[in-house]
Amino acid sequence: MQVELFKLLENRNKFCYKIIELFQVEQDWVEVQTVSTNLEISERSVQRYFHYLDETIEEYNQTNNKHVKFFYEKFKGIKLEFSDSSVEQLKIHLACNDENLQLLLDLCLLKTDYIKKYSEKKFISIYSIKQSVKKINQLLSSFNLTVDANKLEFVGEEKTVRFFCYIFLWTLFKNGNWPFEYIDEDRLHRTVDHVEDRFGYCFTAVHRKKIAYFIAVCLLRSKKKFFIVDTENWDQYINFSAFRRKELVKTVERDHQVFEENEFMYIFVILEMTHWMYRPGKVKDLILEHHQTRNTDVYVATNLAFKKFQKDFFEIPNGMQEIFYTFFFCTHLQSRIFPGIYFDLDDFTSLGESGFPKNLTMKLKEFIREMKVLSQLEIFDEEELLLKRYLLLFSYFEYWSSFEPKVEIAIDADLSFLVRERMRKMIQNHFDRRYNLEVIISNPSLKRNCLVVTNMPSINDTNTGNICVVDPPLRQKDFLIIEKRVDKLLRELY
């Protein structure tokens, strides 16, 4: 979600956001040229964004009674000092004051009105609001949601609206202040304490906070009369009577004035969808035993997929089988609760482009289609969700490069044996997890999958193979050159 929200920012806020991020790793002065290179814009543009950032920081200090200091000198560059604040808090302020994100935030917190009233209240033109709605709708399209440009409210299934609001607010405020103005955070944490007491469970600090955010979104929307109308087939997934026996329902009714059974069903089914709920204990046993008794489609799909996955790809070690069985289970449950929608709950985007190995992707797509034929279950219609979640298994075990075509890198350079050997190890270690590589020091072969790394471009006159010229000692630019040549070679091999 972080990537999607960044795309929503206005251009000047995008650049200022990137400038602020530089100070997560830099404590001292950052030169204008360095900023220009990182942002890929001219130095004159950088100086213009410096002035805007200075104004933003001044506004941040006045609004929040903070003392972030901004320094700029022509030949030294820029420096930020955070005495009583942090980079994260400044980034949150920047995001919350962006026109597009401010509208989305108001939509999630139910602070909007008809467009004319909202325009007058916020001193923003109707045209600007409509432009923001267009950008927000581009983001929401992948969630099967839209924003009504006149009423300024979400249009779509309530279960999806709530879950989107939760992910958006969590992404934006997880390192900031509690964003729910009229919902008592301490009371919600006491509810989480009650869950721990009743089930003998202990949540981490992060998980406690995530549960509080999710329930807060549900309370906010239900109090504003946005209800979960249809619970579909959730009753087969939820052992509602067991939760009643634990007096969990009664506690929430008393503390938060929630009395609709559908509201509880929604909260329970979403919690069942989160993998960290399945640590060894009563909760895991309660959920899985109920699914086994009912022989649910999620349970059947998980057993089939878990067995066939190990047969077709690799054996999951005994000590890890339970963890990854529940991972499959949560994936298939998400597929049933949100069909046609992909929520990146496991931060798949953090894998970058290396998260899409071509051969393995094709094999997994074939696996999913075979599972569909074998099981005849709708769960396996959600190819995008299943593909990305299954790929995460390979990223954990670091097996995916073995499914890709093998590339041979032969080092043929005017260097001593020891330097060539060090160069071989550096290349092997740098690309080991991304490519199926074998780096050798020998005469290059004439095979199509062979790439010659050298510091002598003149050998290309007599060798028709793939030549990659570097300049030892190897630096970042040399690794980028090799990477581009390997990618090009792989495209030819596929």
UniProtKB/TrEMBL annotation:
Lineage top rank: taxon: Bacteria
Keywords: Transcription, Transcription regulation
Pfam family, one: Mga
Domain Mga helix-turn-helix: 89-168
Protein name (database record): Mga helix-turn-helix domain-containing protein
Organism, scientific name: Candidatus Enterococcus ferrettii
